[in-house]
Structures are given as C-alpha cells and as structure tokens.
Amino acid sequence: MLYLPLPMQSKNPLLSEAAEELQRVLEPTGGPFCTPCCMAATGLTLYEIRKAIRELILVGWLSASMSGCRICHRRAPVAFARLDPFSR
Ligand SMILES: [Zn+2]
Hints:
The chain is of the alpha+beta class. It has helices at 17-26, 35-42, 46-58, and strands spanning 33-34, 62-68, 75-81.
C-alpha cells in the first residue's frame, strides 16, 4: 500500500496560493502597500498580485484605494487589510 502525503490545508479554501502569500505579507502591518511593493514583498508577478487582490477583496479581507504606500511612500493605488473583515 502506497501512502501519499495529504495536500497542505489552506486557511481559506477559496483562496489561491498567491492570495495567501499576499495575506501573509500584509498581515503584520495591514499595509497599505502599492502594487510594486506587493510584488517585491511576495515575489509574485503583476498578474498574480492583481488576481490575489481581487480574491482578497471578494472575501472581505482587503480593500484598495489611492493613498501613500507604507514602504515606498509614493501616492499610488494601494491595497490594505480591512479593520473588521466580515470573513474573519
Ligand atoms: Zn510602495
């Protein structure tokens, strides 16, 4: 009998690995991080970051606006963790 390891259990089965990675990076401070800083912090591509942001907005974990980035201080579209997400 061959036993295979079970796939890693994700916190939220609705989220992709890219979304979980973005969540992991944003969790300590809550952001706000601009897209280039999200890419640098996660190692994800622009396409993956945009998709991850959409996913996290859909589950109520994240929001986006035009503001100053916490890392590079540029005024840009930024993503930040919601204070009272209805998914938590
Ligand atoms: Zn930035």
